């Protein structure tokens, strides 16, 4: 008797991805890693079973499959194992593999934690985070440290609700994998993740394919799949190693757009859509749209469905049943802000306080993103834990920024400060210091439990200060960790409108503060918004999209947001 292994292309591909990760952890050279990763991608995308191509000796002709890789595939086909990978799995401590699998960590960071902090298990990493040893590493800020603590916590407690940021990372990865399958014709995220809700219960993915079995098999074999909870003909529900449950549904290409509309929800939005359809003589169902003298619709996009009903296209962020269906019917939807409208970031931390990068590094990354300006807003002196800046250090920092700006012709670093609104009221720096800044963000970092009157009047005082431009993270909430302060949001918005002050949408996925509801209110009060990342390291500059999505959920247009302005126009607002 001989054993027969039938290996799915995805399984072979993942072996090469894992091999590359483990070698990266060991510090192997870049070209080798790239060769393995490219081979993995090629294998995943092959329309025929790799195993058969190998047996028929056709695999060597595939570009990117060299001798070394071919030999490893041969090993997998013959024995079901790859010796080199098995050896690495034995050699690298199991705890390190768990660290590597943490959201946002990966091989490179796991290797830094191992070498520089001696972290070889989740417990050791947690210990290092609690002792603030992670934020001391180059390129990693306090936020990365907090996120690691939280993700380990989620992993261990398997909470029922997850932050959007975590769900979207998993969504990007999983849809990326599914897209490599030749059987997958279209892949989209659906559900509350597509609507960018701040917390979600699960991740829904929709795939168009003629071969659902193949797609569902690949999801079952996906390395982050921990357990299959349910499998039907065209749906699979799995538990993942990240804690978030995932549901993947496969439909035919003809059904795709109706299924996407349905699986995106929300329930309330669909109810209102169905009611409006009925009032216009249509019948809208999960599988199609008919009636009103028309033939059944064969849509080529979701837009076709809305359009047949006489509606403007409703972006997923607005589909919460908050009046968007009537607005679309009256062709009165706001022209929502887009990611590409953002020209700069006005709340960032450098390694002068608790950030992980130099101002030069942050500016370089922001320029790469296509921004024309940023404001560096480190913490002020009273925030000792974050190494807040004294007037003297701030003056030094501003001199350095002047020097940096001399080097750019197409980019400006604005001199900023995130000044503390002190627990007893008042600001943490004197007026003559604040006067030297281009951008003053005022935020609360203490006295979170004060009664509504006390905390509101503290913030109102900041709104009334002539040097303050922006109020940072107004409610101070940390999603899943602590409620916001008892601040009277409407009173603050009313005062902000009166004093021409800007309110922040803090884009960090654990804050999203203002939230969508408060964004809506701010717009009603006529208050301008700044969408900022509050990034403490370079990676987090990319979190801007969460703030933009929150703004879109709140119905904002480009003109409602100050950091869509070119610098001269922005300065006019900041200097008045
Ligand atoms: Zn802050
Ligand atoms: Zn900040």
UniProtKB/TrEMBL annotation:
Keyword RNA-binding recorded: no
User: Per the UniProt entry, what are the Gene Ontology biological process annotations, in alphabetical order?
Assistant: DNA repair
GO molecular function terms noted in the UniProt entry: DNA binding; DNA-directed DNA polymerase activity; phosphoric ester hydrolase activity; zinc ion binding
Top-level enzyme category: transferase
Q: Name one GO cellular component term.
A: cytosol
Question: What name appears for this protein in its UniProt entry?
Answer: DNA-directed DNA polymerase
Q: Where is the DNA-directed DNA polymerase X domain?
A: 6-320
Residue spans crossing the bilayer: none
Enzyme Commission designation: 2.7.7.7
Pfam entry (one): DNA_pol_B_thumb
User: Entry's Gene3D superfamilies?
Assistant: 5' to 3' exonuclease, C-terminal subdomain, Beta Polymerase, domain 2, DNA polymerase beta, N-terminal domain-like, DNA polymerase, thumb domain, Metal-dependent hydrolases
**Which reaction equations make up its catalytic activity?**
DNA(n) + a 2'-deoxyribonucleoside 5'-triphosphate = DNA(n+1) + diphosphate
- Domain named Polymerase/histidinol phosphatase N-terminal: which ranges? 344-423
Q: Which UniProt keywords apply?
A: DNA damage, DNA repair, DNA-directed DNA polymerase, Nucleotidyltransferase, Transferase
Q: Which domain of life is it from?
A: Bacteria
């Amino acid at each position: 008797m001989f054993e027969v292994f039938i290996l799915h292309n995805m399984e072979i591909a993942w072996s090469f991805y894992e091999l590359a990760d483990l070698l990266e952890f060991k510090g192997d050279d870049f070209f080798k890693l790239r060769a393995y990763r490219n081979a993995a991608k090629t294998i995943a995308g092959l329309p025929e079973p790799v195993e058969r191509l190998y047996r028929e000796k056709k695999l060597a002709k595939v570009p990117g499959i060299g001798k070394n890789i071919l030999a490893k595939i041969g090993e997998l086909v013959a024995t079901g194992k790859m010796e080199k990978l098995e050896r690495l799995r034995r050699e690298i401590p199991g705890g390190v593999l768990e660290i590597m699998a943490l959201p946002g960590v990966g091989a490179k960071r796991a290797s830094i934690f191992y070498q520089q902090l001696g972290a070889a298990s989740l417990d050791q990493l947690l210990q290092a985070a609690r002792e603030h040893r992670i934020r001391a590493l180059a390129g990693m800020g306090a936020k990365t440290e907090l996120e690691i603590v939280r993700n380990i916590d989620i992993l261990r407690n398997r909470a029922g609700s997850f932050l959007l940021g975590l769900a979207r990372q998993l969504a990007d990865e999983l849809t990326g994998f599914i897209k490599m399958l030749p059987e997958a014709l279209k892949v989209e995220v659906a559900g509350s993740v597509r609507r960018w809700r701040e917390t979600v219960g699960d991740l829904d993915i929709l795939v168009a394919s003629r071969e659902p079995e193949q797609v569902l098999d690949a999801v079952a074999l996906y390395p982050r799949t921990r357990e299959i909870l349910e499998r039907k003909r065209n749906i699979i529900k799995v538990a993942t190693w990240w804690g978030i449950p995932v549901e993947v549904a496969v439909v035919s290409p003809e059904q795709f757009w109706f299924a996407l509309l349905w699986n995106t929800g929300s329930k309330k939005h669909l109810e209102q859509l169905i009611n409006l359809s009925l009032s216009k003589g249509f019948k809208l169902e999960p599988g199609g749209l008919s009636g009103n003298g028309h033939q059944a619709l064969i849509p080529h996009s979701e837009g076709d469905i809305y359009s047949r009903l006489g509606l403007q296209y409703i972006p997923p962020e607005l589909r919460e049943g908050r009046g968007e269906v009537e607005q679309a019917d009256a062709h009165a939807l706001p022209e929502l802000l887009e990611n590409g409208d953002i020209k700069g970031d006005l709340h960032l931390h450098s390694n002068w306080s608790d950030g992980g990068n130099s101002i030069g590094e942050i500016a370089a990354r922001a320029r790469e993103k296509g921004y024309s300006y940023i404001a560096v807003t480190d913490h002020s002196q009273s925030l000792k834990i974050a190494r807040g800046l004294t007037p003297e250090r701030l003056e030094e920092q501003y001199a350095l920024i002047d020097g940096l700006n001399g080097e750019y012709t197409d980019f400006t670093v604005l001199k900023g400060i995130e000044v503390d609104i002190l627990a007893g009221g008042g600001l943490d720096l004197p007026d003559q210091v604040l006067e030297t800044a281009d951008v003053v963000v005022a935020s609360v970092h203490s006295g979170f439990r004060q009664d509504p009157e006390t905390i509101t009047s503290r913030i109102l005082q900041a709104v009334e200060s002539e040097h303050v431009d922006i109020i940072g993270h107004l409610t101070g909430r940390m999603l899943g960790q602590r409620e916001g302060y008892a601040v009277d949001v409407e009173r603050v918005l009313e005062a902000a409108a009166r004093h021409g002050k800007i309110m922040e949408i803090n884009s960090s996925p654990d804050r999203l503060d203002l939230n969508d509801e408060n964004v809506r209110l701010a717009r009603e009060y006529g208050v301008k918004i700044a969408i900022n990342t509050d990034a403490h390291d370079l990676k987090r500059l990319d979190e801007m999209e969460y703030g933009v999505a929150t703004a879109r959920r709140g119905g904002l247009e480009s003109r409602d947001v100050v950091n869509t302005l070119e610098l001269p126009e922005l300065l006019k607002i900041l200097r008045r």
